[in-house]
Design brief:
This protein is of the alpha/beta class and 332 residues long. Helix content is 44%, strand content 18%. It has 2 domains: 208 residues, 3-Layer(aba) Sandwich (D-Maltodextrin-Binding Protein, domain 2), CATH 3.40.190; 110 residues, Periplasmic binding protein-like II (D-Maltodextrin-Binding Protein, domain 2, 3-Layer(aba) Sandwich). Keywords: Signal.
Length: 332
Amino acid sequence: MHRRRFLHASAAALAALASPPSLRAQLRPRILRLSGPWASVSFPLLWMAERAEFGSLAERIEFLPWRDPDELRLIALEGRADFIAMPSNVAATLYNRGLMLRLQCISAWGLLYLVSRRPSLDRLADLGDEELGVPFRGDMPEIVLTQLAAAQGVEARRELRLRYLASPLDAVQLLLSRRLDHALLAEPAVSMVLARSRSGIVSLFAPELYRTLDLQQAWADAGLGPARLPQAGIVAVGAAVDDGGLCAEFAQAHARALGECMAAPQDCGAIVARRSGRLDAAAVADSLGHSRLEAVNAAQARPELEAFLGRLLAHRPGLIGGRLPESGFYSG
C-alpha cells in the first residue's frame, strides 16, 4: 500500500496543517462519526461529542456505541463510523482481512480486573471449582486471562470453570444477585459493581465485593512484560484513512479530550452517565483512577503492540488474523 496512498495522505495532511484556521473550518466535514464501547477507552470520544470546543473537527460530532465485538465488526465493515475505539487484536484482524483502516493510537493500557467475593487472590488456580464470569468469549478479556493463566501453569478453558457472558452488565447483575462469585471485568464496570454493592437498597442483599486482582500487575508478576498492555485504541476507517488533515486534527483533539477527562473526572462521569443512560456518574469518575489511559500514537506504540500481538500469534494466530500487521496498519 502503498507508497501511493502514503504520499497522498502525507500531502493531504501537510495541506490541511498549512491552511489557515478559517479555511480549515470551511473544509470541515458536516458530521464526524465516532464509535466505541461503554468503557473507559470511549470516554474521550464522548467528551468530544459533548463539548462545543471540539466543533472545529466537524459541524456535528456523533457517537455510536457498540455493545459487543460482533456489532463492532459490523459497524467497521459497513463504514458507519470514521473513528472507532476497539481492541487492538480486532483492529489487527480487520486490517489483515483487507478492511481499509489505520491505527491512530493505543489509549487503553490497562482496564482489566478480577472482581470477587474474596478480598485477595494470588493465583487464578486458587479459584478452584468456583465459576468465573467472562464477558465476550474469545475477545480481549479472555485473551489476557488465557495468556496470564498459561504463564501461571493453568490451562484456562480446561482447568478454570469459566462462565461466558454476553456483556459486562450481565456479570454485574449476577454478582449483585449472588449468582456469581467472581468476574473478569474492565473499567468502568468494575467501579460500578463495587459502588452498587455498597449503596442503597442493593447493599442490603448484595455480597461484599472486592477488586481482587489487577490483571496488568499480575501480567508483570508472571514475567510477561510491564504492567501495561496495549489493549485498545482508536482506528480511522474508510475515507478517514486517507484524510491526513482530519487524522492529524483528530489525534490532537483526542489527546486533549483524554487529558481533560482525566483532569475533570466528575465532569467526565456526568457526560458518560447522561449519554449512556446506564452507567453511574460517580462510578465513571472513580474508574478513571483505576484506568491506565494514555494516548500513544501508533508509531510510538508499535514496539509494545507488536510484542503483545506476537504473543497472541504464537498462541493462536486467528486472534490477530494470522500475521502481524504490516507498516500500513500504523499511522505516522
